[in-house]
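Box 4.2: Ligand-aware structure prediction
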Amino acid sequence: MLKWKNEILIGIIPALLLFGLYKGTEYLPVILIAVLLIVAFFVVRLQRSGDAIGATGGKSSHKVSEQKPSYLKFDQIGGQDQAKAELMEALDFLIKKEQIAKLGIRPIKGILLTGPPGTGKTLLAKASAHYTNAVFSAASGSEFVEMYVGVGASRIRDMFKQVRLKAQKENKQNAIIFIDEIDVIGGKREGGQQREYDQTLNQLLTEMDGIHTKEEPRILIIAATNRKEMLDSALLRPGRFDRHIEVDLPDKKGRLSILDIHARNKPLSENVNMELIAEQTFGFSGAQLESVLNEAAIYAMRSNADILTKDHLGLAIDKVMMGEKTDREANEEEKVRVAYHELGHAILAEVVRVGSVSQVSLCPRGKALGYVRHNPPADHYLYTKTYIEGQIMIALGGAAAEEIYYGARSTGSRNDFEKAMELVRLMVDSGLTELGIVDIQMVPKKQFMDVNHAILDELMGSTKKILETYMIVFEQSLDVLMKEETLSGEQFRMMMRQIAS
Ligand code: ATP
């Protein structure tokens, strides 16, 4: 709209002049009109630049997402205590300006947040703006990617210009620019093909180098990535993004506090035990936990309930973990095969860790035709060789059961094998195999494959042997599963106990 106004104004000026001259108008009024129009033109321009501050990208088409002053506070972010503490310490450099100047400390220009998706990196950046009373501007790395050389670089320039203007307009001394997915523009420069990416990254580095202690507003760049190893070393050197903060998946305490935050606006039944939900959501990110509560509320609405119950939350966890229930009906023959496959996983899981099976189900969910829901283990961060081998055997249990009953496997074990091989890689990487302590990148493919085969073959053999001692459990559980479609952990353990006794 503004663009149109501008263009109309520019068109009107010569038109009026020509019209005046044609009519023999005297000079003075023409000059007066011209002055008036010039003034109007500058007023419009001023308005335009005001609108662009922190929002759209001026002359270029770049859009840095408009951020109203962010009122999100650190205490509205659950868990992440370590990340919050490290971040606040770094942000204090922005607040305690005099002390920093007195001691001659170099200002922090960039903070890099790294970690899996949905763990709260964007939330932390927003809370940083509140903590430092800064204007906040956010963009994603992919917004700077263009086919044409130089466009990305000019967008970076615009972004810095706009945020400075925005801070001046709002009379703020600090400004925070948040760049999500920094790896898109900050990947390692290899020369040659990637000129556009290189120019964009160079421009970012130039802008960062131009940030000075005494400059106002003081700009701080917070960037986020899930792939720190991809970043160009120039970005990570001192004076650029030299503060790295890990934003990991939350532990049980963190999960509980995130669940509490997102449950605040939801009516919960008394039978909901949040501690238990936090336990069952092992490995979930903050975004997934938010989704669990949201999905539970949707289930409550579908069943015309006024409050969220334990069952709604149970269904929601399954949905977030495994995907929505699907209508895909496997035929009877396939169903039996899926049942044997899932029971293979379940028996191994109970053998490796008693009490670990929460449910065996033949309900198709997401891409799976059946699944075993496990009771999560207590949070722990170190894994022994025996533990990893146990996990591999659980993953192989499905294929082993199919081999026992059908003499051959099906395509249903693809994901299980991926998981098993990932665990083998972890073993190699951690020096837990016959290869000793090695850099996995340096191991010849053939040698790696030999070790991979040896480990998987041996564990497949042990898995089959274990399963063969539980044939009665297979048969009894199969009956229940074919009739009821689900088998609770308790029912299943009762059958397992028969063998032990
Ligand atoms: P990505 O790497 O995919 O950009 P992210 O780490 O930036 O993800 P956010 O965008 O900050 O993740 O989080 C997404 C959503 O997940 C938030 O809007 C919030 O609802 C929820 N969430 C994530 N972590 C937390 C947390 N620690 N406390 C409360 N809510 C959280």
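In the box above, the bound molecule is adenosine-5'-triphosphate. The first strand starts at residue 110 and ends at 114.
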